[in-house]
Amino acid sequence: MLVLLAGIFVVHIATVIMLFVSTIAHVWMVSSFDSETISTGLWLLCNKTCSQLQVSSNDEASLKAVQAFMILSIIFSLVALILFIIQLFTLEKGKRFYMTGAIMLVCWMCILIAVSIYTARFAGKMVYGTNPHHGYCFILAWICFCFSFIIGILYLVLRKK
């Protein structure tokens, strides 16, 4: 049981770190222009130097929603981690981690909304270069989506013994 708790804890910490990286870094979409790599994130457009990401007025609300939901997913994931540690020491024997699991599933839903909006509005529509493809931050966000769902379900099922 201790090994399972430690494994869930390690995966949860890895998920939080990957959420931070995928939200902060600027490699959601990558393309090339005149043999130079151009990458865009949620905030910046980087070529040799980084500048503010310019989006059309039609896509601005979508980008703000993606930014907000990714930040919310980080917050909910951190709250779930802190709550798990608190419940680990205060929860009675035989009780389940319902609150931690519920908060982690809310984090999962925030990631789903953010990445879905980004996929629908911005994937493959990079006007700054040719041959656009997804960067590692986009892939990390989908990995965090999977991990947060698995962790949320495990917290709901897991009993403290």
TrEMBL record:
The keyword Transmembrane applies. The chain crosses the membrane at residues 7-29, 65-85, 97-118, 138-158. Keywords: Glycoprotein, Membrane, Transmembrane, Transmembrane helix. It is a multi-pass membrane protein. Pfam families: PMP22_Claudin (PF00822). The keyword Ligase does not apply. It is found in: Membrane. Its main location: membrane. GO terms for cellular component: plasma membrane. It comes from the Eukaryota. Belongs to the PMP-22/EMP/MP20 family. This is Epithelial membrane protein 1. It comes from Calyptomena viridis (Lesser green broadbill).
